[in-house]
Amino acid sequence: MKASLLATGPALAVLFAVAGLVFGAAYFAALRLTVDDFVSGRYRPVSAILTLTRFAGAIVLFGFAVQFGVLPLFAAFLGFLGARMLALGAARRTT
Question: pLDDT averaged over consecutive 10-residue blocks of the chain (95 residues)?
Answer without folding.
Answer: 62 95 96 91 88 96 94 96 94 81
